[in-house]
Design a protein that fits this description.
mainly beta; Porin; single chain
Amino acid sequence: MNKIFFCALVFIAIKSFAQDPTFTQYYSSGLQMNPAFAGAYANPALSFLYRSQWPSLSGNFIDYTVSYNHYINKLKSGFGLYYMNETEGDIYKTQSYHFDFSPSISLDSNWVLKPALEVAHYRKHADLAALYPYYIHTIFPPSEKEYIDFSAGLLLYKKYFDFGFAVHHLLEPDERFFAYNESPLPRRYIAHTSGNIPLNKKESSFLSLGIHFIKQQNFRQLRLNVAAKLYMILLQVGYYNKDSISLMAGITNKQFRISYSYDITTSKLRNAAAGSHEFFVSFFIVNEKIKNKKPALNRVAF
């Protein structure tokens, strides 16, 4: 039954306009959310984020990203690179490579404005034979699609507050696999904000509030998060658009950050699909010679 349910979901997804993957720990995947996060932090970072959605299904949705984020003082600009792999069972797979560029403009001693541009290369693979392997290969052979994509973003921040806006798929590239089925990838609009409140004078503990909104064609998603950093301990509770409640825990210091989150499904899918798992790890390159000399955004939000 799970297999039939999963196949129906994927078939609908391929026939309809595509939607990008979303992450519970969206600030941890900052470059994927908004290219203006390139170079926004104090130190360069190498990060890995893995998500497994609805693992109780026979072919669940798995996404992961590997990213590198760096600010170059001489150029007064941030650079970001990330690779994303999306798998929907054995039917639909996407690989993409992204390059982000974001100059930093100091508005005063505290505020920084960062416009950004992203260039990406996508490769998509569809194999509908996984649905009906005995005869569909003669009708729909495995197909691949490649294209170049562009996105843009804007970020305004100071040490403990940020507001950003991003538009992905500016030119709405055509994702069609077959000549008779036009499939432009709809633009994706993202707005986000977070504020971090110090809980002690040493600023070793914080309370963080976050809002994240996505619109992509008819799809809308709103996430509300309350998080806390208590010395090395990270905790978060999130609410997702009447669909799920997320719980997260992790640890962090000057050299690394590790966190795990679980989405508890509250929608009608809860009886057919289990919740979703996310694992994030990031390593910071702490070096005064390459440290961001501009005011940097504090990484408390998730």
